[in-house]
Specification:
Length: 234
């Protein structure tokens, strides 16, 4: 997979992608992540990429020309499965979306800034608009990093135990069950006996019950209108 990130602050991105699982995936050649400085595609000698909005009002808007120049330059080199724009009014990002995007070959992510981008760019270039939450950030770089991390860790070979990702929260619309490690007793607090039993069937049944109970208590919205999980428990 290749992910191209279009940003005003490429130096802000490199630190995140040079650590942990993402770094290992890049070193293995599992994923290629490239950063593109939008200032380099500006038509202004000052490298500006924003302008005042038509109709007046506070704030600035990312201009269409430098953004379109960057997108088209990359499109001339390869075909993209999706060109994603990080926007507060985009579709909420979730695990199902991460699963789907992890199957792509080439993704492009445009990091939004200011009051957003010229609407014509959204109409004619962007294929998917995504938000990571109901709040506004100073820029889309953090959103791009969050999405990339969630996507990359699902690519086979990115993490040591590939089955581990399948047991993460939100897979199968359930939160992950509680986890324990050594010692078996600490300050009188014991690990549940079933986890020490060695009976894998009972352990899996316990974990499923715990995941279902935790989801009901903390995120009932994940179960709303879905009888599949409830029926599986019967």
């Amino acid at each position: 997979m290749r992910i191209d990130i279009l940003t005003l602050f490429p130096q802000m991105m490199t630190m995140f992608f040079d650590e942990s699982i993402v770094k290992r995936a890049r070193n293995k050649g599992i994923v290629e992540v490239c950063f593109h400085n939008l200032h380099d595609y500006s038509l202004s000698r000052y490298g500006s990429v924003d302008d005042y909005p038509y109709g007046g009002g506070a704030g600035m808007v990312m201009a269409i020309e430098p953004l379109a120049n960057c997108i088209e330059a990359l499109q001339a080199e390869r075909t993209y499965d999706d060109i994603i724009y990080t926007a507060p009014d985009g579709q909420p990002f979730n695990q199902s979306m991460a699963n789907s995007l992890s199957l792509a070959q080439n993704l492009m992510i445009l990091c939004g800034h200011y009051k957003g981008v010229d609407e014509r760019l959204r109409e004619h270039f962007i294929t998917r608009e995504i938000s990571i939450g109901d709040y506004v950030l100073s820029g889309g770089e953090l959103a791009a990093a969050v999405m990339s991390d969630a996507i990359i860790r699902l690519i086979p070979g990115a993490i040591g135990d590939e089955q581990s990702a399948l047991g993460d929260s939100f897979q199968d619309r359930l939160l992950a069950p509680p986890e324990y490690t050594r010692p078996p007793e600490y300050r009188g607090w014991r690990v549940p006996e079933v986890l020490l039993s060695g009976n894998h069937a009972k352990i899996e049944a316990w974990r499923y019950e715990q995941a279902l109970e935790r989801t009901r208590a903390r995120r009932p919205d994940l179960l709303a209108g879905d009888d599949t999980t409830e029926q599986k428990n019967k």
